[in-house]
Amino acid sequence: GKGEYDHFMLKEITEQPTALAQAIEGRIDPTSGRIGLSAFEPGSFEAIDSVQFVACGTSYHAALYGSLALNQAGVQATALLANEYSVAAPPVDETTLVIAVTQSGETADTLNALRQATAEGARTLTVTNVVGSTAAREADDALFIRAGPEIGVAATKTFSSQAVILTLLGHRIATDLRGEPSADLESLLPALESMPSRIHELLEHSDAEAIAEQYRDSRSYFFIGRGLGYPVALEGALKFKEITYEHAEGFAAGELKHGPLALVTPETPVFAIFTGQEDEKTLKNAEEARTRGAPVIAVCPDGHPAVEAADEHLSIPETDSDLAGLFANVQLQLLSYYAADLLDRPIDKPRNLAKSVTVE
Ligand code: F6R
């Protein structure tokens, strides 16, 4: 049940420290400082040349996060919408690893893409929350995110767990291809281990409810981010529109000036996500919005230059840039939740949506 919470969504947001601790449990080898995914022997990804992720909705945003992290580690990877895969899949062969990212393991679009990839001779893997799901049974291998059941239609804790598992998996693939772990693993692993307690802290001290109240009469809500902040911007906007029924869009921060800036007015708050990847450019993009009168809410660590430059601030801890966006995402989950609550929306069951989409 929901226990002390009014909604499953808030319960599941609050469960993220536990979900993340379960996701990483036993998957980091403290002696070697390596990533030990026990299903995969060291070297099991040696024969892989490229990775294709297939997924839908929030899982697609986690997949995009994973693909960008792999690109940064020097591995060829792309994230594809599973529902577009049948019309325009890039070629695959036995050196292609196709990773189906699906919380439920039952999404028809994602299963179709997985089956197509299998038929065309790719190696397949699913990252899922549900043991015994169709995706877990049909893919060559399954990696479970162990987030526990998610009842709210809006995916929250499963996004965080997917992104963390894909970050770990990405480093394992890169390590196998390179023959040695990358240097940045040294800062990533301790940052991962402290993530559950730091998310707990963030949840205790979030200003998201006050910000939701302050901007409740806005016309539209925009979310911008760069690098790993980009999938988080997309996810922030999806969550916001899904449960508040208000218009929201996510953009790559640098794209704003290529069109969307025409929509920016004093009635469109812009949430700018800073992940430590070319933040000075994102700050310039946020300032372009502010010059048009838009209120800017910086999602960044305390003491970051964006705090001074923006109208409001949602705080995230200083951490590895591989993970900063995931802290920002938790602030944005809370923002959506409180904005929807103020509007009295049926948060756990938004109109027209189902938890598991088993039709094409
Ligand atoms: C949004 C949401 C959906 C799902 C999508 C894929 O909050 O939950 O966008 O992410 O339908 O579902 P799974 O991950 O079960 O394949």
TrEMBL record:
Q: Which residues form a coiled coil?
A: none
Q: Which gene underlies this protein?
A: glmS
Broad class of enzyme this protein falls into: transferase
Q: Which reaction does it catalyse?
A: D-fructose 6-phosphate + L-glutamine = D-glucosamine 6-phosphate + L-glutamate
User: Among the entry's GO cellular component annotations, what is one?
Assistant: cytoplasm
Q: What is its EC number?
A: 2.6.1.16
Q: What is this protein called?
A: Glutamine--fructose-6-phosphate aminotransferase [isomerizing]
Coarse class of the primary localization is: cytoplasm
Query: What is the role of this chain?
Result: Catalyzes the first step in hexosamine metabolism, converting fructose-6P into glucosamine-6P using glutamine as a nitrogen source.
Quaternary structure and interacting proteins, as annotated: Homodimer.
Which keywords does this Swiss-Prot/TrEMBL entry list?
Aminotransferase, Cytoplasm, Glutamine amidotransferase, Repeat, Transferase
Instruction: Name a single GO biological process.
Output: protein N-linked glycosylation
Task: State the active site.
Answer: K355
Segments forming domain SIS? 41-179, 211-350
Tell me the compartments it is located in. Cytoplasm
**Annotated Gene Ontology MF terms?**
carbohydrate derivative binding; glutamine-fructose-6-phosphate transaminase (isomerizing) activity
